[in-house]
Design a protein that fits this description.
- With 400 residues, the protein is mainly alpha-helical.
- It folds into 2 domains: 195 residues, no CATH class; 173 residues, no CATH class.
- Helix content is 65%, strand content 2%.
- It has 15 helices and 2 strands.
- The protein has a two-stranded antiparallel ribbon with strand order 1-2.
- β1 and β2 form a beta hairpin.
Length: 400
């Protein structure tokens, strides 16, 4: 089922974008090589910023490609402009990693002893090295997959085996600075500048994960899929249990994802001023792009980032075991508040009684489920905090 790229414009074609971006990256690499008298090898100064920059380049390509697939703006071919952005970033990343891990014996030694060279990479740097290898293998497979089986659209993009490999490889690649900093006892202790690489790595991985579970996110779903209106007509959905169950599944999955991202970061670092706002802005950008640039989603994302930063001001007092549940619940509350504003424009009441239950907008769920969903999401955050910060085990008593 191989196809041909329908866009004949040279400046928007795959070769021009792919090789043009690589040429620009090559010029920048030459300039830095002369200024630094050599590009940094793995683990050396400026290695992590370069790796993060290249990872964000790949992430930008993913965001563009994901939007194209979601919007249905794809050709029946692998060689699209958005793939050119994504895979040029991967090629630059791979070329730099090849240079960074090159042993003293040069290319010949790398060819003779590839596995020994990879095994010799320190554990804190393996995510970036192994991640780009997984990405490269998956990318080659994606080329074959697209040209033989066609191009995926909508939710199918999340289940293509080659795309899953690309997602995993990209997440490993962008989090490389995070794991490098994890092994450094002095990392992240000098304010926001010392945490930027860490936050950008975690946030970029969050963007990828958001795409992987896009189908289970109410920020992207039509109101009718999770709203119940009973005898009213603001969402025209009469199946209460189905609407409620769809909504709860999505809220719980997103609460777990948010809690996991926060637990990883807070397990190792105390958030600097501005760190949580920056981290949650990656979430905001992700939902904005994946919703086809819905301004309401961007506004909700920015609001959630502000809430995250405000609550972080009291982090010393509340600690991670309270902060994580609060943010898991806040994600739901922000969504409900904005839903209340939008539904309030078309519903002439804020509640109604059906049988023995009080149903409330914005979703038309019963008062029990509306409040209970917030509590359960907070509970998910609390469980995540217990996993990340378990109680100390008692010391074993030696018996003589």
């Amino acid at each position: 089922m191989a196809g041909t790229h329908g866009d004949g414009h040279f400046y928007t074609g795959f070769p021009f974008i792919f090789f043009g971006l690589l040429i620009l990256a090559g010029i920048l690499a030459i300039v830095l090589h002369k200024r630094w008298k050599g590009l940094p090898k793995i683990g050396e100064k400026f290695y992590d910023p370069i790796v993060l920059f290249l990872g964000l380049w790949c992430l930008a390509g993913l965001l563009i490609d994901a939007f194209a697939h979601i919007a249905g703006n794809v050709d029946d071919t692998f060689f699209t402009p958005w793939h050119a952005v994504w895979y040029s970033g991967a090629a630059a990343y791979g070329a730099y990693i090849f240079y960074a891990i090159l042993p003293n014996g040069g290319i010949q030694q790398l060819i003779r002893e590839p596995f020994s060279t990879l095994k010799g990479v320190e554990i804190q740097h393996r995510a970036g090295v192994y991640g780009i290898i997984i990405f490269a293998v998956s990318g080659f497979g994606d080329l074959i997959w697209h040209e033989t089986l066609g191009v995926e659209e909508n939710t199918d993009i999340l289940l293509s085996p080659t795309h899953i490999g690309l997602f995993i490889g990209l997440m490993m690649s962008v989090t490389a600075p995070l794991w490098s900093a994890w092994a450094d006892s002095t990392s992240g202790k000098n304010g926001l500048p010392s945490q930027l690489l860490i936050v950008f790595g975690a946030g970029a991985a969050w963007c990828v994960a958001l795409l992987m579970v896009r189908y289970a996110n109410l920020w992207f779903a039509p109101l009718q899929s999770y709203c119940y209106s009973g005898s009213l007509d603001f969402c025209d959905n009469q199946d209460y249990n189905f609407a409620l169950e769809q909504g709860l599944k999505s809220l719980f999955i997103q609460a777990a994802l948010t809690s996991a991202v926060l637990a990883i970061f807070l397990q190792r670092w105390k958030p600097a001023r501005g760190a949580m706002f920056t981290l949650f802005m990656f979430h905001a950008i992700g939902v904005w792009v994946y919703s086809e640039f819905d301004s309401n989603n961007l506004t909700m994302g920015i609001t959630l980032a502000i809430v995250a930063e405000v609550l972080a001001l009291g982090y010393d007092r509340i600690g991670p075991k309270a902060y994580i549940p609060l943010m898991a619940a806040s994600q739901v509350m922000v969504f409900m508040i904005y839903g209340l504003i939008s539904v309030g424009d078309i519903a002439d009441t804020s509640y109604w009684i059906e049988g023995v239950n009080i149903h409330v907008i914005p979703f038309g769920w019963s008062i029990h489920s509306t409040i209970g969903s917030i509590v359960v999401c907070a509970s998910i955050g609390w469980f995540a905090s217990l996993i990340a910060f378990p109680p100390r085990q008692p010391k074993a008593i030696e018996i003589e």
